[in-house]
Structure formats: structure tokens, C-alpha cells
Amino acid sequence: MAKRELSNREISDRLQINDLLVRYTVAIDKKDWELLDTCFTPDAHVDYTSAGGVAGDYPKVRAWLEAALAPFPITVHAIANSVVKFDGDRATARTYVNNPMTFNNADGSVHLFTVGAYYNDKLVWTDDGWRICERIEEQAFLDGSLPKALTTPQ
Fold first, then answer.
1. What pLDDT is stored for residue 86 in this prediction?
2. Residues 99, 114: contact at Cβ < 8 Å?
3. The model's pTM
4. 115: enclosing H helix or E strand
5. What contacts 24+ positions apart, CB below 8 Å, involve 109-118?
6. What whole-number distance in Å separates Cα of residue 94 and Cα of residue 145?
7. What does the alpha-carbon distance between residue 54 and residue 64 come to, in Å, rounded to a whole number?
């Protein structure tokens, strides 16, 4: 039987996790790497390989993100439909992602494409609040194509 009411803790946790997921999108789109640091545990495992990226510990992936996202003047990460499940001070979340990106071509034209994906996250409660301790991006589609002039760092 479904429970009718959520506890204050579960309401608070759900709001804080939503804020964390939104903070991640703001950090990425603004290229605010210090803000991004507030989203992950220092030892988090992050995997963007399904979208052609890298996998590894957070510091390695953060450095890669700085280089990989530099050529894109505009990225708009929109998230929705997060399904969050709790297990005490741990949680899992699966979140839909729609991410249009622009790239300025040498001829002055703008190349637009959109990535659709899922973020599969493991989260943990820390002294600083909820943090992502594992993120595995699962690319679902690419609408358009990657820019021909784009080189992706390894």
C-alpha cells in the first residue's frame, strides 16, 4: 500500500537532491568549476564514455570537462523526471537530460546540436549535504552531428 505522506526528512532530502542536480547544470553551463566541486565527493567516480568522454575519479574528469567544454560558448543542460530512491544516508537517482550545445565555426556560422541522455547517480549525505559519489552518463540520442572542426581532449 502506498504511503500517503512523506516525512519531513524525505521532503527535505528530495528538495536538496533536486537543488544539487540543478546546481550541477548551472556549474557546467556557466563553466564554474568551483561550483562544480560542490556537487561531487572528492573521490567520486564519473563516467561520460557513452558520449565520447572519459571516465575516472572526479579530479581527472573535472580537468577533462574544463578542456572539453571550452569550445562551446553555449550549453543548456535541462533536467527532468528524476527518480530518486533512498537507503538511509545514500540514494540513487536517474535523471533525464536534454542538452543543446553551440559551436562557433571558423566561417562565423553556428553549429547547433542536442544531446539527450540520462544521469545515473549514486548520492551520499556528507557534512556538506548531499553529494554525487558516482555519475554514469547514458547517452540516449544525438540530434544533429558533432562539429567537424571539434577536437575532443583525451
1. 96
2. yes
3. 0.93
4. strand 110-126
5. 111/144, 111/147, 112/144, 113/142, 113/143, 113/144, 113/145, 113/146, 113/147, 114/142, 114/143, 114/144, 115/51, 115/139, 115/141, 115/142, 115/143, 116/140, 116/141, 116/142, 116/143, 117/50, 117/51, 118/94
6. 25
7. 8
Grid coordinates belonging to 34: 568551483
Residue 151 counted as domain residue: no
pLDDT value at residue 147: 87
CATH number for the domain including 114?
Answer: 3.10.450.50
List of residues 6+ apart from 106 with CB closer than 8 A? 149
- Number of Cβ atoms within 10 Å of the Cβ of 139: 17
Domain count, the chain: 1
Query: What does the pLDDT look like over 37-94, one tens digit per residue?
Result: 999 999 999 999 999 999 999 999 999 999 999 999 999 999 999 999 999 999 999 9
Residue 14 lies in domain: 8-143
Q: Are 58 and 46 in contact (CB under 8 A)?
A: yes
Does any domain span residue 149?
Answer: no
